[in-house]
Amino acid sequence: MSIPSGKERTVSVHSARKKSRRTTSDIKTPDLRDDWKQFPVLFQKYCEARLCPMYPKVYNFLERDDGQFIQIDYPLSNMDYKTTENKLVIYTYTNREMNIRKTVCKCPHVIDTRMFFALNQTLLNYSSMTCLKLEFCNIGADHIIILQDSLKTKNIITELSLVGNPIKEQSYYRLIYCGLKSLILRFCEITDRGLKKIAREFLNHDSDFATLIHLDLSSNMIFDEGCKYIATILKCDRTLQSISLIDCKITDVGCATLISCFNKFALNFEEVYKRRTIRLEYLKQLQKVNVDKDEPEFILLENKINRYPFTNHESFAAEGEIFCMGNYTLISLNISHNNLTSSSLDLVLKSLVEQTETFGNGKGLRRVILEGQNTPECEDIKSKISDFLSSKNRKSQTTSSAEGSMRSRSSAEAHSSAHSAGFDKEEKVSFQ
């Protein structure tokens, strides 16, 4: 059997793609009002208004029901375009209704600030687009400020990926409270200096505006020193549900710092100061509300202080210190491929048991990923952790199902009682 040459393989692949494009029913008749038609026109308009030195290439793809992508605007030969020039290349992905859902940008050199501003202006016109990927685009601190303003202006983007964009100023903290649900910062060379800024943003910002559910800090220079700032985030935040710390050079010391925030802990000086600041502000506002007798504002004030873990029922005084219940809202923790030994894994298992005893099966960690620790001792403890979490998840599902059945039964009984009461009333009226 002869092996086809590289050129023959390329021709056959292109022929198959061309045939697929001809016969697919996924592409509807093009309309000038479609997002993918308007996007390049709008972008060029904003680039010209900003006097940009060049115009980026834009490629549009349709996502089919089977998850495959079809290019819908340029010849097939352009799919092999490589970003070797000093130009920005943009890929937009639309659904069957031709609404843009995702935008991916590639740039081998620093993006011109004017062009980046034009890109953000263009994106604001598409309310259907929820995902933006600026991966390996050499963006800087100025771009982060532009992006922050854009995200706050119109909360449409919920997933942002900045993979491979190290920034000297470490200003990623600006993106924490911008309405995002997922923020991916892999390969950004984030150090403890950048983590300190992120932790302060979590600690000092109003929790009413917290929306971030997933934070990916994998493959950064976190080390053990940075773990204390990750712990600060997990101590004060009750919105985050998933955090990824793959390949962050963490050892047993840093792991112990991380795990400590999942169980009862004593507030440090900065956390006590934050608690007192919030309570003092609460008392000042309470006095003002009592004078004005504004009940709605009083309820709003009560809700605000009850949402913060350092000031609500989760915190308490004991033994001359202020303690707080551990984090019970984080569901997924990924600390794979770090320098951990069996002692760290044993600590994880003990913490899971203690967390479950404190909060029950329905709260706390349900997924802990520990790949890369492959010694026999580690494998044994990983197996125990997996069994424990599987049992916890099964019990949680059983409890949820039972509670749902009870609620349905109670609702049905209440409806039946109300119906019977109404029927009896009708009988009495007719009898009279």
UniProtKB/TrEMBL annotation:
<feature type="compositionally biased region" description="Polar residues">
    <location>
        <begin position="389"/>
        <end position="399"/>
    </location>
</feature>
<dbReference type="InterPro" id="IPR032675">
    <property type="entry name" value="LRR_dom_sf"/>
</dbReference>
<dbReference type="InterPro" id="IPR001611">
    <property type="entry name" value="Leu-rich_rpt"/>
</dbReference>
<feature type="compositionally biased region" description="Basic and acidic residues">
    <location>
        <begin position="422"/>
        <end position="432"/>
    </location>
</feature>
<feature type="compositionally biased region" description="Low complexity">
    <location>
        <begin position="400"/>
        <end position="421"/>
    </location>
</feature>
<feature type="compositionally biased region" description="Basic and acidic residues">
    <location>
        <begin position="1"/>
        <end position="11"/>
    </location>
</feature>
<dbReference type="InterPro" id="IPR053040">
    <property type="entry name" value="LRR-containing_protein_71"/>
</dbReference>
<protein>
    <submittedName>
        <fullName>Uncharacterized protein</fullName>
    </submittedName>
</protein>
<feature type="region of interest" description="Disordered">
    <location>
        <begin position="1"/>
        <end position="29"/>
    </location>
</feature>
<feature type="region of interest" description="Disordered">
    <location>
        <begin position="389"/>
        <end position="432"/>
    </location>
</feature>
<dbReference type="Pfam" id="PF13516">
    <property type="entry name" value="LRR_6"/>
</dbReference>
